[in-house]
């Protein structure tokens, strides 16, 4: 009651609780927010808001009441099936969730106070996946804003064929397994064991990577600079391939270890609002720019006509070390040339031999003395000796001039939690760290 009185005092629109029955009979718990006053003759333009994993539709209501409604947009936000107060089982944005998105759009469009053509979509993380997959499935959103999410679920959760098992387990805890779709529940052990062949069909059905070039819906992509679950590459792939109007914002928001400064939120919401204003009424012009926020957030992001140019800096990491189960080796070096800012595809290559039951290798890159990594990555090993190339997650991190950068090699990290069996061993030889960095650092 206090929240309702406060909303009225501030002149904010009040969420109206509604229950929407999906086409399979499942009840979805939702709220509808409409602007104050009478609707225009064609109905309010509207945005469907999709929440993140572990959230509910109430987490999206501040965006609805404080940003969209004052700008004369209605919004609908619902608990995803299998989560919160909605019925059904959780399917990780599978085909059933695509149909739910279509059902929600149809429900909105059927209302006389809502436009039947000016409906967009905004989704965060899991909700961003819902927006992407529904769009690819033909749900006719007029404009979309997917935020800190994936375009290829398999490369996001198991890049180079090695599962980010620590992060996957963290995500899995957000929804009780009793509410999972049986197909998804059966696939989880295979993913944790990096049996990517066993989960490839499930991941493909929840990814838009092969359909990006055919999507012409105006798309504002918002991704995080430093996000170990969905890195920058997930959004860059879409930005490079989308056929329609597009813009990319890379900010300080995201999953761990992103700082998520509250001061950046008005900018993010403002960009989304501008996108819907431009395209839901059909008067938008083609956009194609890339904006990168500085770290730390300073309120003055840098904007480019396209993806900014990068260069590669490289250091050798000599040495020979025998590792046994549970052990790691750290090697370090200094980069010359002043401040660097990572951006793009970086690698660690390392010679290895005398492999015994050691089936994968993980590399963690840090600024010496800091606990939070710059980036990390892993790869499977299938031969008894050779050169392993470890592709690192695309993260935008500032490396101050003169600092030492370390690379820790082993079998596990916070992201990659799967160890090698007892009695395993490997000998690591000379390694090379190649970092892709912006030609000109933006942050200081």
The biggest sheet amounts to: 10 strands, mixed
Mean pLDDT equals 95
User: How large a portion of the residues is in β-strands, by DSSP E?
Assistant: 25-35%
Distance between the ends: 46 Å
| Strand segment tally | 21
Please give the count of helices: 10
Strand pairing plus helix content: what structural class?
A: alpha/beta
Question: Percent range for helical residues?
Answer: 10-25%
Identify low-pLDDT runs: 1-10
Q: Over the alpha carbons, how many angstroms does the gyration radius reach?
A: 23 Å
Strand order in the sheet with the most strands: 1-2-4-3-5-6-7-8-9-10
Shape: globular
Quaternary structure: single chain
Describe the structure.
The chain is an alpha/beta fold. It contains 10 helices and 21 strands. It has helices at residues 2-10, 61-68, 95-109, 126-136, 153-157, 165-172, 182-192, 196-204, 232-241, 265-280, and strands spanning 16-21, 27-33, 44-50, 74-78, 114-124, 144-147, 219-224, 246-251, 290-292, 302-304, 310-317, 321-324, 329-334, 340-341, 347-356, 360-367, 375-380, 386-391, 398-399, 404-410, 425-438. The strands form 4 sheets. The protein has a 10-stranded mixed β-sheet with strand order 1-2-4-3-5-6-7-8-9-10, sandwiched between helices. Strands 11, 12, 15, 18 and 21 form a 5-stranded antiparallel β-sheet that branches. Helix 2 links the parallel strand 3 and strand 4. Helix 3 (95-109) crosses helix 4 and helix 7 (182-192) crosses helix 8. The radius of gyration is 23 Å and the shape is globular. Mean pLDDT is 95; it is low at 1-10.
């Amino acid at each position: 009651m206090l929240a309702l009185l406060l909303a009225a005092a501030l002149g904010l629109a009040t969420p109206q609780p509604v229950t929407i029955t999906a086409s399979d009979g499942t009840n979805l718990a939702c709220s509808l927010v409409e602007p104050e006053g009478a609707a225009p003759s064609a109905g309010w333009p509207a945005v469907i808001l999709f929440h993140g994993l572990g959230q509910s539709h109430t987490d999206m209501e501040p965006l609805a009441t404080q940003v969209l409604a004052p700008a004369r947009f209605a919004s609908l936000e619902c608990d995803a099936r299998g989560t919160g107060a909605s019925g059904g089982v959780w399917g990780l944005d599978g085909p059933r969730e695509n149909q739910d998105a279509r059902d929600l759009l149809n429900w909105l469009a059927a209302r006389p106070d809502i436009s039947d053509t000016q409906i967009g979509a905004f989704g965060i993380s899991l909700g961003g996946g819902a927006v992407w997959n529904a769009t690819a499935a033909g749900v006719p959103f007029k404009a979309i804003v997917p935020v800190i999410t994936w375009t290829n679920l398999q490369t996001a959760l198991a890049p180079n064929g090695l599962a980010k098992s620590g992060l996957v387990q963290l995500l899995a805890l957000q929804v009780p397994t009793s509410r999972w779709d049986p197909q998804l529940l059966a696939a989880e052990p295979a993913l944790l064991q990096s049996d990517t062949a066993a989960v490839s069909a499930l991941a493909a059905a929840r990814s838009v990577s092969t359909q990006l070039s055919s999507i012409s819906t105006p798309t504002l992509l918002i991704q995080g600079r430093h996000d170990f679950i969905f890195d920058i590459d997930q959004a860059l792939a879409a930005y490079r391939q989308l056929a329609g109007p597009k813009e990319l914002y890379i900010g300080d928001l995201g999953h761990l270890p992103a700082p998520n400064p509250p001061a950046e939120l008005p900018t993010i919401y403002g960009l989304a609002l501008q996108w819907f204003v431009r395209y839901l009424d059909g008067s938008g012009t083609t956009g194609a720019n890339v904006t990168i926020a500085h770290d730390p957030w300073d309120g003055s992001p840098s904007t480019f006509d396209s993806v900014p140019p990068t260069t590669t800096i490289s250091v050798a990491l000599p040495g020979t070390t025998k590792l046994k189960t549970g052990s790691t080796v750290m090697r370090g070096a200094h980069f010359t040339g002043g401040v660097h800012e990572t951006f793009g595809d970086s690698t660690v290559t390392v010679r290895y031999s005398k492999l015994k039951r050691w089936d994968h290798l993980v590399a963690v890159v840090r600024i010496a003395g800091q606990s939070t990594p710059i980036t990390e990555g892993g790869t499977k090993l299938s031969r008894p000796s050779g050169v392993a190339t470890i592709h690192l997650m695309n993260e935008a991190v500032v490396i101050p001039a003169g600092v030492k950068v370390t690379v820790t090699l082993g079998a596990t990290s916070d992201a990659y939690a799967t160890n090698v069996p007892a009695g395993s061993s490997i000998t690591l030889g000379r390694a090379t760290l190649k970092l892709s960095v912006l030609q000109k650092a933006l942050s200081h």
